[in-house]
Write a structure and sequence with these properties.
Length: 274
């Protein structure tokens, strides 16, 4: 994946998480109860004692509401929970018809959720900040797994491609047979042109099939690599933060994102050329 594309994807997801956190902050039950309580106090107890003004309640309410919003926006656990919800919403495994691809994506999202929980359980400090950065890089990984799975899912469900894959070899044999016996120059020329077209179609179908098989294997490998990253994060310690180990894990994440993006881009090129 090109760095701008990866950055754009992550920025878009961060923006959606931020919007979800703002919505959560203003509409959580504590916020609603605070607003309701202030309104009751303003109307029923505008001056509970001498010197008190009704708008003092409003100031207290605004202060309480500001505190609720602040704690909500700075709550990493809430952020991670909303992030996982957004991942499941945007990259919904239920969108995939093939159980194999659906299961892989569910496992990938589960790994992401476990990594987020691991970060949450880590004490504040350099290690936690470093882990946050690594887990944030997983968003693009999940996105590319989803896009690749969608492509594979659509390919396997494409009845036209399946029909062409089955019919093309026989059509080529029939045209070759006709060319061997046809004596009319005009018909031979037309048959030769049709045969060339059929051979090109068959070549493209074979390339597409090989690409899909490669993509399927890459998805399986990617899921294993995702599990490997998770196990490494489980083992990482504070002393590893400044060593090359943490950087290697981050590099592995970026490499996987780039590999998946290259395959997705190649698929897009093949489909656009059809």
């Amino acid at each position: 994946m090109t760095m701008p594309a990866q950055s754009d994807m992550q920025e878009e997801l961060k923006s959606r998480v931020w919007q979800a956190m703002l919505s959560y902050a203003f509409f959580r039950i504590e916020s609603a109860l605070t607003i309701a309580l202030i309104l009751v106090l303003i109307f029923l107890l505008p001056r509970p004692f001498a010197g008190w003004q009704w708008w003092y309640w409003l100031i207290l309410g605004l202060a309480a509401e500001s505190l609720i919003v602040y704690t909500s926006l700075t709550d990493h656990e809430t952020r991670q929970r909303l992030l996982v919800e957004l991942l499941k919403e945007r990259y919904n495994p239920a969108d995939l018809r093939n159980p194999k691809y659906r299961s892989r994506l569910e496992k990938a999202i589960d790994y992401h959720q476990r990594m987020a929980a691991l970060v949450q359980s880590t004490q504040e400090g350099v290690l936690k900040d470093r882990l946050k950065g690594m887990v944030d890089g997983m968003d693009a990984w999940i996105a590319n797994m989803y896009r690749l799975s969608k492509r594979l899912d659509a390919y396997e469900a494409d009845k036209v491609l399946a029909r062409d894959m089955e019919a093309a070899p026989e059509a080529i044999r029939q045209l070759e047979k006709r060319l061997s016996t046809e004596s009319n120059p005009a018909i031979r020329a037309q048959a030769q042109e049709t045969l060339s077209s059929k051979r090109a179609q068959w070549e493209n179908l074979q390339k597409l099939k090989a690409m899909m098989e490669k993509a399927d294997l890459q998805l399986e490998e990617t899921l294993s690599d995702l599990g490997n990253v998770y196990s490494q994060l489980r083992q990482i310690e504070v002393r590893d933060v400044d060593s090359g180990r943490a950087q290697r894990i981050a590099d592995d994440i970026n490499d996987q994102v780039a590999t998946l993006q290259d395959i997705v881009d190649s698929m897009d090129e093949v489909y656009s050329a059809r």
